[in-house]
Each structure stands twice: as structure tokens, then as C-alpha cells.
Amino acid sequence: MTDPSLKKIHIGLYIEQRVEECEMELSRVCNFLKCSAEEVKQIYDSENLNSEVLLKLSKLLEYDFFRLYSQHLIMYAPSSKSFSLPKTTNLPRFRKNIYTKEIIEFILELISNGNKTPNQIIEEYDIPKTTVHNWLKKYKHDKTAQLQKNL
């Protein structure tokens, strides 16, 4: 139902999936959003949503739907200096990127399958060299330990 690569995000499908996972009644969603069942179904069909509605759904379903977009930016946005904020801005500044387990697995899979080298990952995704090498060390060790455990 969902695209694990996050290349194309259909937010309504993710919301519907989360409602099902939480086994939440449609009436509860309607009451929380102060809307009809038909409007909730329109949300499920929507590829895009108003950020206020998305924030409410994130709270109700206890899932950060905004992170889907953040991860998309990490994986697919061009890495250029023009993408970063200028030093003089009143917008909030974030100290570091958030790399989820899925992002790390995606990157390590690209490397292990031979699709990309660590240097290509560092350049194309603008991930610090030490971060990539730490992932390679840590998850190689975890994988070895798991294999030994299964023997």
C-alpha cells in the first residue's frame, strides 16, 4: 500500500493505514477533526493535506506524518548550498538531520547491493563521512552478531 522509498508520498494512504493499525473507529477520527465520515474518506483519498489537519492527525494517531516529508528531503532533495538557510534568518534552525532506521537501512542496502559506494552516498545525500562509516561499522557488527546467534 505504501512506497517504502518515500519517493512519492500519498499522505492519505499513510493516514488510512495508521488508522487501521491503531484499530481506531471512524467516529473517533470524525469527532477529533470535527468533520463527517465522508470528509475523512476524502482525507484518505488525498495526496496532499493542509498542515493544520496533518498536525491534528499526527497527534490523534501518535505518528509524525511530517517526518515522511523530512525523510523525503533527506533522500531526494538536491544537496546544494542554496538549499540551506542563510545565517541571518528568524526561522527555526535544526542542529542535525534525523536519520530513521528506515533511512539507515535504505542507505546500507544501496551500499551492500553495490548500487552506490560510501563516497557516492556521502556526496549525493550530503551525509557526513563519519556518519556513514559509523553506520557501516555498527550495522556490520550487528549483522555478524545476528548470524552467529542463528547458528
From TrEMBL:
InterPro entries: Homeodomain-like_sf (IPR009057). This is Transposase. It comes from Chryseobacterium herbae.
